[in-house]
Fold:
Amino acid sequence: MKIVSFLGSPKKKGNTAALLDSVLKGLHESAVVESEYFFLHDMKIAPCNGCDACKKANSTGCVIRDDMDLIYAALRKADIIILATPIYWWSVTAQMKLMIDRIYGMDFKCGRKKIALLMTYGGELPNSGPETLEKLFVEICDYLKMEAAGTLGVCTETLTVSKNEKALQDGLSFGAKLVK
Ligand SMILES: Cc1cc2nc3c(=O)[nH]c(=O)nc-3n(C[C@H](O)[C@H](O)[C@H](O)COP(=O)(O)O)c2cc1C
Structure:
């Protein structure tokens, strides 16, 4: 089974990274998986230019050549995709959005895969961030004709993920369930 995960936080060792680590640990403990990881903040990903070339019949994909080429290759092979992002303004981070925009043409070329969403959020009330992002995620999965394989959200207002035993345990269980 092949897993590809994407960290959308600008922090390599922040809350979202800790949550993703626990999910990947749970997943590796439960099944033999091959996993590939991308730290989007360090990658050169140009914004989609809206040319629609990726949507044309007989298209060979996106016309822009940059680090997305590595991601396209990984996505084609993957059985399960994990998107891990802090919530920024009720949505994904800009780093994650650049990548999502650039997979616009993959809806009918990629085959059916599972996608999971991990999110951390600050949580000042009132906060509909997790619900808003979850809705967006389900719409994106439908559009890509992929299976929404679940979401896991952790509030980081009072406790960082690395100090939050329950969150780390939830991450392990979530990872284990993803590969069942
Ligand atoms: C620019 C910015 C926007 C944010 N927007 C939200 C938001 O809309 N809702 C929320 O609950 N938290 C928001 N937060 C808080 C982060 O989601 C939270 O601190 C998260 O756990 C950070 O994860 P990280 O340690 O991986 O960077 C925002 C933080 C930043 C820096």
User: Anything to note?
Assistant: The pocket of flavin mononucleotide is lined by residues 9, 11, 14-16, 86-90, 120-123, 127, 129, 156 (CB under 6 Å). The first strand starts at residue 2 and ends at 7. The mean pLDDT is 94.
